[in-house]
Amino acid sequence: MDTTTTPAQTTPAPQGTPTSPVRLTEAAVAQVKKVIQDQGFQDYFFSIRVVPAGCSGLGYDLNMVRELKAGDLTWDQDGVKIATDALSNKYLAGTEIDFVSSVTGAGFKFNNPNAKSSCGCGTSFST
């Protein structure tokens, strides 16, 4: 799964509640719903976390999870239940996640206004 990070110059924060740091594009919502349907993940949360990774220091960890961890923040977008932790919330504020597909592959693309740089391969970022 491609998790390319694109540092943003000026991207407005998404509309919604203060606990929704991430906005999924229509394509991303459709892909998550497809995974839920195809894999039988009804009643699961789409978990988005920032973890230590790669040569730039931070990366994204995407999973479908049934059970939340203590202190997780949750919200719903277009029928997709989303969760993150408080620390990731800080790094994800204002992030838009898209799903892109091309002849070279498909994956989620992050437009994170907090990412100041990313590594050459595009799998990690720094703030």
User: Mean pLDDT, rounded to whole units?
Assistant: 81
Low-confidence stretches: 2-18
Rg, Å, rounded: 14 Å
Query: What is the helix content?
Result: 10-25%
Task: Report the sheet-strand fraction.
Answer: 35-45%
Structural class: alpha/beta
- Distance N to C terminus: 22 Å
What is the secondary structure topology, with strand pairs?
Layout: E1 2-7, E2 22-24, H1 26-39, E3 45-53, E4 57-65, E5 73-77, E6 80-84, H2 86-92, E7 95-102, E8 105-112, E9 117-118, E10 125-126
Parallel strand pairs: 1-8, 2-7, 3-6
Antiparallel strand pairs: 3-4, 5-6, 7-8, 9-10
Characterise this structure.
The strands form three sheets. The chain has a four-stranded mixed sheet with strand order 1-8-7-2. It has a four-stranded mixed sheet with strand order 4-3-6-5. It has a two-stranded antiparallel ribbon with strand order 9-10. The two termini are 22 Å apart. 17% of the residues lie in helices and 45% in strands. By secondary structure, it is an alpha/beta fold. It is built from two helices and ten strands.
Task: Please provide a brief summary of the model.
By secondary structure, the chain is an alpha/beta fold. It is 17% helix and 45% strand.
Features:
single chain; 127 residues; alpha/beta; 2 helices; globular
